[in-house]
Fold:
Amino acid sequence: MTMSGQLAFWILAALSVAGAATVVFGRDVTRMVLGLGAFLLSVAGWFLFFGQTFLAVAQVFVYVGGVLVLVLFAIMLVHRAEGADPALTSRHDVDIAAVALSVFGIMVVSLRSAWPSMTEGPVPTSTTQVSAQFLGAYLPHLEAAGLLLLAALVAAIVIMGGEGE
Structure:
C-alpha cells in the first residue's frame, strides 16, 4: 500500500471511529445526528477506498442525503416542552399510521409490475451496466418512489405542524 493509501486509510478510520463515538456517547440529539452523518460519509469513503464508486454514490444519496435529512426534519418537528427538551410522544398515532400505510400501499401497487422483471436476466457487474439499467427501464419506478417519499415527508410536516399551541 502506498503512503497516500495508508493516509487515506487512517483518515477514514479516524472519521469512522469519531462519528460512531459521537453517536454512542453524545448527549444532544442534534450532535448525535451530525456524528451519524460523519460516520455515513466515512462509509462512503470506505466504498471509494475499495473502488466501489456506485456504492459510494448510493451511500451519499440514500443515507446522507435522504435518511439523515429525514432524521433532521423529525428532530425539528418534534414538539418541544417547557425546558426545551424534545417531548418524544406522538399526538397523531392514527393519522401517521394511516399515511404510512397509504404510502406503502401505493408503492406496492406501483412497483408490483416491475418485480418479476427485476429477477430475470444477468446481474450487472459494472457501474456502467447498473446505471444503464437504473436509468433505462426502472427510471419511472425510481421517480415514482421518490415522489411518494416526498409526499410522505410533506404529509408528516403538515400533520406535525398543523396544530396551534
